[in-house]
Amino acid sequence: MYTSKCPGKGDPQGITSRGRHTTAQSDWFPAVHTYSMSPVLFWFLLYSCCLCQGHCRLYDRLRELNTEFAVKLYQTIVTTENRTNLVISPSSVAASLGLLQFGAQGSTFTQIEKALGYNVYDKTVESFMKMMHNELTNSGQDTSIHLACALFVQAGTPISTQFTEHAIQWANSSLQLTNFSESNRTTNLINQWVNRNTGGGVDALVPSGDFSSAFMQIALASTMYFKSKWKTKFSFTDTQTLPFISTDGSVVKVPMMHQTADINYGQFETPSFEKFTVVELPYLGNTVSMFVVRPTDRNTPLSSIESNLTSKSIAVWANSMKRTKMDIFLPRFKLECYSDLKRALPGLGVSDLFDPRKADFKGISEQRNLYISQAIHKAEIEVEEGGTRGSGVTGMALLKRSRMPVFKADSPFIFFLRSAASGPVLFIGRVTNPLL
Q: What sequence ranges are listed for the domain Serpin (predicted)?
């Protein structure tokens, strides 16, 4: 039995839902109705609630693992490549590794599993990834997100039917046959696929002639395409040429965008008490936001924040910021970065797949000589007044002084694009000089 209280007047007939006569209720008190419930239905509902809670906890853990992978990949590339500006798409790299995990065995499989934090054969992982992919690709007409993977396989290589079945259901993946001995043709095929799956945003992933080895059997490519407008646009007429202090202390003049808006804002500090500021700039639809992280003191190096980045710290920022009306200054910038994953992934414990003696991809093909000879990642991002690609004339209007809080990204900062619903980090990077 369970009891429900219904607001409003009492039962004027003095009749319960089971038809028994009861004392009439006062107009000042709600009537109390009782209903019978089948024990089987009760236990089914209880089991469903527990199952839902279990899935929610597992999904939360998978969101955390996705973010942790993004942070570790970013930290590794920052360390191994020592770049000034940087942008990567962790979601794209994770999708590639997930696809390879379907074909990996032995220590190759284990290394990928440990790096990602999950087993792609797990049914919960499978349902979470499908949910995440659907959320991202159905973000609304104002936001376009597209994730895709492709394996380019040497024609004639026997491919496992089971692997093919898994591959075509993973992150919008596809298998394409090619002839690696025809280097230019293969290069064009891969670059055309990349261009098509980034809405024309990336012209070339592979430099001409990069696939010149007749011994190559498989090439892997993945893309993450994002395009959206700001929820609150920066006005072109408010953009000014202002100083930006780069890492080495030199000053460069950059087009600095401006807006006044209610945004999420927070001030935090590292374990060594170095203060920094975080703001969240949402895109239309509130599906994705850009987080901008900047040291409060210009003398604090960006590395002090980068070294303390974790999935938990990002979750704390997102949940702790307060809605604040602010003057926001953000430089207009465009980044395009190649990253060599053969240098980065070993830092995450993934190395066997690059070693012809250790790589085990018998889940893809029974041929024992399969290994990953190249792993190139390219990411591009362009941040402008409207949030979309396009050119505009920089205005030179002077802004009035304001007494409201100011966030001014006029020195090196970290940024990342994060999905509000499913939590994955689509892009993460740093800007130390917007003009480079």
A: 71-434
